[in-house]
Amino acid sequence: MQDDxxxxxxxxxxxxxxxxxxIVPRILQEMLLEMMPRLxxxxxxxxxxxxxxxxxxxxxxxxxxxxxxxxxxxxxPMLLPLRKLAxxxxxxxxxNLEQALITEYDVGAPIGWHRDKAVxxxxxxxxxxxxCTLRLRRRTxxxxxxxxxxxxPGSAYLLSGPVRWEWEHxxxxxxxxxxxxxxxxxxxxxxx
Length: 192
Known about the structure:
Layout: E1 17-20, H1 26-35, E2 42-46, E3 49-58, E4 60-63, E5 68-71, H2 80-90, E6 97-105, E7 111-114, E8 120-128, E9 132-140, E10 143-151, E11 156-159, H3 161-166, E12 168-171, E13 178-186
Antiparallel strand pairs: 1-11, 2-3, 3-6, 4-5, 6-13, 7-12, 8-11, 8-13, 9-10, 9-12
């Protein structure tokens, strides 16, 4: 783990953040990476703009124009073993992780500062193919608290509690092709 990327002397990561390397067995990583080219990825759309990354969702999809989630295609069976690993890591029942977002970050693709939408609860992220830096920040008493961690291929992280609700996160432009699979709990349902 790496702290102090932005000059904060804080020696620890935020409360509610967990990280574990090598949680996904190599054979499962290879199987998942083999299926990636067959997925129906589309450019990430946000209020009329397209991001540099491509995404595909399963279970539920957040619609930025209506600001609601809607039921979509169920999680494919090939994601269920990974969902079980993610749920065990987060100490949740697998069925609680109802949404999966697979993101393809091509070279140079970032994700800006954000908090996942409030319709989602705990967030578990799985990193595949190459590493990246996950940056965390929150503003308190007029100054930024910051921390970062290198997400290695096959690793998992959990955003829960204070880090989920009080902190933002981002990923700077990646240097190599990378995939992430993000599992989320659903807190509220809008349209089925």
